[in-house]
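Bench log, entry 3. Co-assembly request; chain sequences pasted below exactly as received.
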Amino acid sequence: MATVLYLGPSGTFTEVAARAAFPERHHRFVALASVPDVLEAAEAGGDVYGVVPVENSIEGSVTLTLDWLIHHVHVPIVAEWVLPVRQHLLAAERTARLGLGAVEAVLSHPHAIAQCRAYLRQHLPGACIRHTSSTAEAARLVAEHPDRPWAAIGPRLAAERYGLAVLAGPIQDSAHNATRFFVVGQLPYPRQSERAKTTLLITLPHDYPGALYQVLAAFAWRKLNLTRIESRPTGKGLGSYHFMIDVERPLGDVLVPGAIAEIQALGCAVRVLGSYPCFASGDEAERTAGL
Amino acid sequence: MATVLYLGPSGTFTEVAARAAFPERHHRFVALASVPDVLEAAEAGGDVYGVVPVENSIEGSVTLTLDWLIHHVHVPIVAEWVLPVRQHLLAAERTARLGLGAVEAVLSHPHAIAQCRAYLRQHLPGACIRHTSSTAEAARLVAEHPDRPWAAIGPRLAAERYGLAVLAGPIQDSAHNATRFFVVGQLPYPRQSERAKTTLLITLPHDYPGALYQVLAAFAWRKLNLTRIESRPTGKGLGSYHFMIDVERPLGDVLVPGAIAEIQALGCAVRVLGSYPCFASGDEAERTAGL
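Structure output for the full assembly:
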């Protein structure tokens, strides 16, 4: 039995991802208050995994997750899980019986509200919008005030967790909305996949214009596909960046260590943040053309 | 007389940047509530400029600014201004007379608090921390309650704006903390600089692994220095990105249009977000080694 820590509160998409990644019922699931809390607890070791969001197809990177993996913890990424974001309109039984027309206020995280803008304009043009700190917090507030004409936007799981009815859904405007999660831990992830990635943190040498091009050359001539390149500040001033690069091969692949050695020979610092199997729920098989 | 719109409230680092970029006293300075408000008003044209933060050396990109420039407005970047972030501890006269030992609560934006963590631990280990929506909001709250033993963390300008005394400063932990601002507008920026950049938005073709490497090659063989490369989601699913690339040359340089034409011939979409002079206040001459 493993302990699976995830970014809480309970009933968010991160819990959906945690339960998809660890479908066996006997695991212990614990919601923690912040991304640093999850990463630090997973770093401490034992039969403990952490699940945190890393990237959304609309909002982009979760920089807090990247920066903690870069600067504050040393815990390997052991799996990737991609989840479609499917927002639903959730309400207490009384409001649900009255129907959509009865909803006077819609509560959710600003990102979730933004993701359902077209739906809200069409179906609830007069509703007042209230922002909350998470989709689960919105569901909790709606459940706590069952007599108010309120609805929350959130995952179907939040309806289960807080005893709400699903009024409508999925209601997000884009079918392409997906979030990528990392599973981190000191023990290997218990399942295999045909797809694997290696995430490298590469820091270019000072005073070497063109170094990034040379780094990409080391991958390109080996036909190693990159699925993502993300720059994050080193903290040493504007213009100084770490590059987080996802290679679409496991570290055990014969070509990857050669590319790393070549990049190090250029004077770059290279840290392997993880080499891990990749999974997706539902229809979210990731694009694999690469950069 | 130009109208200079900046991300408010009054007394933040963005106002400091706006006044540095337009030092003539006769301009009209107006604080707006959000980055989209500033960009949309500047897009409308006339003798109007907008000033918004785009990147901090510790926090990274201001993704709201990038995403609005990419997806929602068409207004050119006409200047870059880099400003050192110098945090100060600000208090009402009464608290200032009693000295540091009297401060029981410190108010500021979470980023400003984080930037002064070492100072607070050493000098105010017992003070309670309260987060506010901006450094200026913290200064306003402190000024409104002059009898409370409170201090705000913010720029020196906030002391002027809200009638506070400077108890200590600069107090931020890192000397490398700087923020980069864009000036946008439909008219050219009125001053020249020896340094210039061109910011390009490049979208790679589908199903062409290695395209990013080819894009960088077009710059590398011309020895066109890149100072930044940032990926932002296109909104079409995970793995699909725009790349915002800063080239350290003006668009009028003989080599830049050739590079753009070559990149377009690869099947990439290229949009010029601006070609602009670069300025820095104080000691923040930017690193120029390039990527």
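Residues 255-265 of chain B form the longest helix (11 residues). Chain B touches chain A through 50 residues (CB under 8 Å).
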